[in-house]
Design a protein that fits this description.
The complex is a heterodimer.
Chain A (H helix, E strand, L loop, with lengths): L1 H14 L2 H13 L4 H21 L5 H18 L14 E7 L6 H12 L3 E9 L1 H11 L3 E5 L7 H12 L7 E5 L5 H7 L3 E2 L3 H11 L5
Parallel strand pairs in A: 1-2, 1-3, 3-4, 4-5
Chain B lengths: L17 H17 L2 E2 L3 H9 L3 E3 L4 E3 L2 H8 L6 E3 L8 E3 L5 E4 L5 E3 L6 E3 L2 H13 L5 E2 L12 H12 L3 E4 L5 H15 L10 E6 L8 H13 L3 E5 L11 H22 L5 E5 L3 E2 L6 E2 L3 H17 L4 E3 L11 H17 L3 E5 L1 E2 L4 E2 L3 H17 L5 H4 L1 H7 L9 H6 L23 H15 L7 H18 L2
Parallel strand pairs in B: 6-17, 7-19, 9-10, 10-11, 11-12, 12-13, 16-17
Antiparallel strand pairs in B: 1-3, 2-3, 4-5, 7-8, 14-15, 18-19
Helix pairs in contact in B: 1-8, 4-5, 5-6, 5-16, 6-7, 6-16, 7-8, 8-9, 9-10, 10-11, 11-15
Classes of the chains: A alpha/beta, B alpha/beta.
Bound molecules: CO-5-methoxybenzimidazolylcobamide.
CO-5-methoxybenzimidazolylcobamide (B1M) sits at the interface of chains A and B.
Chain lengths: ~220, ~475
């Protein structure tokens, strides 16, 4: 019975059915199943499979994103039901966004999605976000990493502002900063005092693992 | 010598038939009235509200009934003139020619001497302006890369480098926000001299809309400043199928169309009769890496449809060509794709067209690429012209004169017409006294580039004008910082 439910949750993530995943999560709780086991035996297996299918070229981005969406919907039901010190294992918490004055959305969203698929908890705050908004999101979510994307030569300087703002808020020792976007380079990242730069989404994931000292 | 050889298409390539054009227009008007477009600018929202559009200040979404759109668009001119800073550089946009320009605004350059890939700078803009001034394929100039050595003032320094090295018209795609736009208008006024900028716009601007269905605050506020100064403004929708637009070309075109026309409507409310133009660059994405893809057949079809749609609103169309997904010049892929982008646009009757000289999806400046693109352009220019079947073009009298057998080599008619047959220079170079052609086409392109750079001398900007621009740049720096 419970095995069947875990398999269904796995399947809902693989097939990318957010509504089904949410419904299944509710049913699982009604049946008295342990929420943490539902996550570990059901959802996590599903998102891992989605990741594999993506890596092998079978799945495209929408399948990856909708798979993550299905997982999120089910988690929203399961996590509040966890008891005691039960909590889902996440590799690390990342706040990600595009800097102030910059509306380029896709690169940042892709990096965020790849991080989710690799077990990170991601808070995507959107585009055109000021240093203060980044700082607030870091505080609110107790983030380990903050990722700032900039696509314009005129907005990349905001990445520096963000780092200064983190220093002012006494968060710099606690949170790692990664930067990226078309005009951004390794040397620019070093110059502004970021902890790392990634050229694309795949290397962004590697970088995130390195920054929090976790095995990829 | 500075020359412009515009393209004039004798074909009328269409992708959408009448019924399809109507379908896209109706879908666009539906979206404008029922979904709306976000204008994150209080000033823009107030203007829409004053004129009776449906404005929701909280969401910043403006909805426009069909009547409202069509009435405003009725005020936009179908043609207007762009000016350079020398005679013979004026362009009658919408007058039947297609004027081409460089691509912009890249962020990296293959260094002119070392060949290393590095960040772009102001000097790159200056050098490319000089080469563009020479090439007859280039009718007007987009600063090709970002003047990154000038921080937030980069867009103004790009204009300075352009005006100092080229007499042709300049169009900016990087001046954003009211502040920079005001300084850009001042610079343009220096170029126009005693003439009214409205009469002789020496600058025009291209602002991108934000798919799906948004405007950029800085972009739209710059556009308002430009419109008030009489500077022509174009709006470019850049919907990407699958990410910022539905994964169907029709949907992407509709989204971009709605964004661009809503902005053009605002311009007509602010300053009725302001010259505006429209551009829709539909792109695709790599389904796994999301890389921005412009080398797709669907995109080429949309390029043509976009021209039809701009003309359907009664405004000129800007086409986006070249700037392909590849970092190496002179490859099979570039040969293939350049034809689809530029030729199809030209045959469809774009009024102005950007794109020569850049690679890696418009982010990388490879110096000699502009020489390759120039040659492709001239191929297209001849192709678009079509054939002459008048008396002179058939030359029956000469056929009769030579008769069966023999040849035409010694005929005066041949002597006077052989030069009309355009022969690609890079693939078929002329004989040279000392044979320095090593057969490498890339070297030939590079040699030509270096030669232009070393020898071409554009008419210099007058001393007084140079000083005035310097002063404006200094004021901007004091006011806004770098
Ligand atoms: C935190 O850690 C990390 C780590 C890695 C990170 C990361 C963060 N963020 C990114 N990465 C990295 O990983 C990602 C995945 O591999 C990669 O992300 P990318 O974002 O690079 O890749 C995406 C998956 C796909 N790529 C993209 O989506 C960007 C493609 C290009 C063509 C582009 C687009 C599509 C757009 N644009 Co813009 N745009 C260009 C871009 C040129 C190009 N070919 O790159 C560029 C960046 N734009 C430019 C310009 C000029 C502008 N744009 C503007 C607007 C737009 C659109 C809105 C139309 C649209 C974005 C739509 C949207 N909703 O996102 C305007 C500015 C608006 C604003 N305020 O931001 C406007 C000013 C144009 C105008 N006149 O209005 C140029 C910059 C020039 C400069 N001076 O810097 C530009 C190079 C194009 C050009 N050649 O002109 C990596 O960079």
């Amino acid at each position: 019975m419970s095995e069947e439910m875990y398999a269904k949750l796995t399947q809902a993530v693989i097939e990318g059915e957010p509504e089904d995943a949410e419904l299944l999560a509710k049913q699982a709780l009604e049946q008295g199943l342990d929420p943490l086991t539902c996550v570990n035996e059901g959802l996590t297996k599903g998102i891992q499979k989605v990741g594999e299918l993506f890596a092998s070229g079978e799945y495209f981005l929408p399948e990856l994103i909708i798979g993550a969406e299905a997982m999120k919907k089910a988690l929203a039901v399961l996590e509040p039901a966890m008891v005691g010190d039960q909590s889902r294992e996440v590799v690390g918490k990342v706040v990600i966004g595009t800097v102030e004055g910059d509306m380029h959305e896709i690169g940042k969203t892709l990096v965020g999605t790849m991080l989710i698929a690799n077990g990170f908890q991601v808070y995507d705050i959107g585009v055109d976000k000021s240093a203060a908004e980044f700082v607030a999101a870091v505080n609110e979510n107790d983030a380990d990493i903050v990722g700032a994307s900039a696509l314009l030569t005129t907005t990349m300087l905001q990445q520096k502002k963000l780092i200064e703002a983190l220093e002012e808020a006494n968060l710099r020792g606690k949170v790692k900063v990664m930067v990226g976007g078309a005009p951004v380079t390794n040397s620019f990242a070093t110059e502004v005092g970021a902890d790392g730069y990634a050229e694309d989404a795949i290397s962004a994931v590697d970088l995130a693992f390195r920054l929090i000292d976790a095995p990829a | 010598m500075t020359r412009i050889e515009p393209l004039q298409a004798n074909f009328d390539l269409k992708v959408l038939n009448k019924k399809q054009l109507k379908q896209v227009r109706e879908a666009t008007l539906y979206v404008l009235e029922n979904v709306g477009v976000r204008f994150p600018s209080d000033r823009a929202l107030d203007i829409f509200q004053e004129h009776g559009a449906m404005v929701d200040k909280d969401s910043q979404i403006v909805r426009l009934p069909a009547e409202f759109v069509l009435t405003a668009m009725g005020k936009a001119p179908r043609s207007f003139t762009l000016f350079g800073r020398a005679p013979d550089t004026e362009l009658l946009v919408g007058g039947g020619h297609s004027y081409f320009a460089t691509d912009g605004c890249g962020v990296e350059t293959i260094d002119f001497e070392t060949g290393d890939r590095r960040l772009s700078c102001k000097d790159d803009v200056a050098k490319m302006a000089l080469v563009a001034d020479y090439l007859s394929s280039i009718a007007f100039f987009w600063p090709m890369v970002s003047a990154q050595d000038y921080g937030r003032l980069a867009p103004l320094h790009e204009l300075d480098a352009a005006y100092n090295n080229l007499v042709k018209h300049v169009q900016t795609e990087t001046v954003m926000g009211e502040d920079l736009a005001r300084y850009a208008v001042e610079i343009a006024q220096v170029i126009a001299g005693d003439d009214d900028l409205r009469e002789k716009p020496a600058l025009s601007s291209l602002i991108c809309t934000i798919a799906p269905l948004c405007q950029d605050k800085e972009g739209i506020e710059a556009a308002m400043v430009f419109a008030e100064a009489g500077i022509p403004v174009g709006f470019m929708g850049m919907p990407t199928m699958g990410s910022t637009a539905p994964a169907v070309p029709g949907g992407a075109l509709t989204i971009g169309n709605a964004e661009a026309v809503s902005a053009m409507v605002l311009m007509q409310l602010i300053a009725p009769g302001t010259p505006v133009f429209q551009s829709l660059l539909v792109s695709g994405m790599d389904p796994q890496s999301a890389e921005y893809l412009v080398t797709l057949p669907e995109k080429y079809l949309c390029n043509v449809a976009a021209v039809q749609m701009a003309h359907d609103w009664g405004v000129p169309a800007l086409g986006g060509t070249f700037g392909l997904n590849h970092a190496e010049p002179a490859t099979w892929q570039l040969g293939r794709d350049s034809v689809y982008t530029a030729l199809m646009c030209a045959l469809a009757g774009t009024d102005i067209t950007i794109g020569l000289g850049m690679l890696d999806a418009s982010t990388l400046l490879v110096p000699e690429q502009i020489i390759f693109d120039d040659e492709i352009y001239h191929n297209h220019r001849i192709l678009a012209r079509g054939l002459d079947t008048e008396m002179e073009g058939i030359a029956v009298d000469i056929i009769e004169n030579v008769g069966p057998g023999g040849h035409f080599l010694s005929h005066k008619h041949t002597r006077s017409h052989l030069r009309d047959i355009w022969i690609p220079e890079l693939t078929h170079p002329r004989m040279e006294p000392e044979d320095n052609q090593n057969g490498d086409i890339r070297k030939r392109a590079r040699d030509k580039f270096n030669q232009i750079l070393a020898e071409h001398e554009p008419t210099p900007l007058e001393e007084a004008a140079r000083h005035e621009i310097d002063t404006i740049l200094r004021n901007a720096e004091a006011d806004l910082g770098r």
